Amino acid sequence: MFVVDGQEHLQGVLSLRDLIVSSPDKPIREFMIRDVVTVRPEASAHEVAAVLSKYNLLAVPVVDEEHHLRGIVTVDDALDEVLPDSVKRKLPRPV
User: Fold this and answer.
1) CA proximity to 91, closest of 76, 73, 71
2) How many other C-beta atoms lie within 10 A of the C-beta of residue 70?
3) Would the CA dihedral through 66, 71, 76, 81 be positive or negative?
4) Structural domains in the chain (count)
C-alpha cells in the first residue's frame, strides 16, 4: 500500500500485513517505510522491469518530478511489456 499526503505526494509504503498486525492506535507514519524505490513516468518498460527485478518488488510507484504519485506498475505489467511475443504465446494462460 502506498501512502500519500493531501496533495498526492508519495510519503511511504507499507504492507497489508503490517497494517493488520499493528496496533489500531499506532499512526501509519510510525511503521511505514519512507525510503521508497520509485520510477519516473518517462522510464522505459525495460528500466521499470530492471527496477522491479533489482529490488524484488511486486509493484513500483510512478512519481513525477514533484513526487506526486501518478500510478503503479506491477511486475505482471512490466513482464507483459518486455517479454517477446514468442515467449508470451508459450506461457500458460490463467483460467
Assistant:
1) 76
2) 14
3) negative
4) 1
